[in-house]
Amino acid sequence: MNDFSTAISTALTLIAHNDASLREIVFLSLEVSLTASLCALAIGAPLGTALAVYRFRGRGALIVVANALLGLPPVVVGLAVYLLLSRSGPLGSFGILFTPTAMVIAQCALATPIVIALVHRNTVGHWRAYGDAMLVDGASRARTVGPLMAIGRDGVLTAWLAAFGRAIAEVGAIIIVGGNIRGYTRTMTTAIALETSKGDLSLALALGMILIVLSMAVSAISFYFSRALREN
Q: CA–CA separation, 87 vs 126, rounded Å?
């Protein structure tokens, strides 16, 4: 019990004193996860909206695949990205394996299906309500994608925040493609796993506390912004 109390006390001290190594890990985690979630939003939101708007052969299968990918194991994504970026892989010449860029790619691959699925579900209702009116006004289906995303902006925001939450909590894929290199590719989740295995609970607890606060902040932002957008 004394060891646990000491670890908590040290963890709080690290946070209060804005420890340099702690700050470095947190900022890298935020940079990687924000970039990955924004890339996922840029890719997934138009695709999710298009799946709600267009009717074509194989559409149902694509929707099923998008929803199935919500449960995609992170280590499988990490392995796939590793094979793509390794020296013998098709993208090996870029030399980005074990860099933050590789971590962004892996997190984006995990987060994009979330955005596609959530935006699609959100847009289906808006398309039923406004789709006929948009087409009557002479707009093509392609030109309705942007307005529908604007109408369903609360759902798009929720999708992005869900993608960010998925990205920042990820550990398996980014260990594989990032290598957990101290001062370069070590994030909050990978550092927690490493420090716990080493028995250094102080830094792990400090990072865990920050991660919990960030998760709660994301939930609060999602709730209040979604409510504000619906009211407007």
A: 46
CB 140 within 8 A of CB 42: no
Task: Give the tens place of pLDDT for each residue, 58-71.
Answer: 788 888 888 888 88
Give yes or no for a contact between 48 and 159, defined as CB atoms under 8 angstroms apart: yes
**Residues in the chain with pLDDT < 70?**
1-2, 132, 136-139, 226, 228-232
What secondary structure does DSSP assign to 114-177, as a single string? Answer: HHHHHHHHHHHHHHHHHHHHHHHTT--HHHHHHHHHHHTHHHHHHHHHHHHHHHHT--HHHHHH
Instruction: Identify the burial level of 191 via C-beta atoms within 10 angstroms of its C-beta, where 0-12 means exposed, 13-18 middle and 19 or more buried.
Output: buried
pLDDT at position 40 is 95
CA atoms within 13 A on the CB side of 98: 7
Give CA separation, 22 vs 17, 172, 203, in Å. 10, 21, 7
Structure tokens at 114: 């979330």
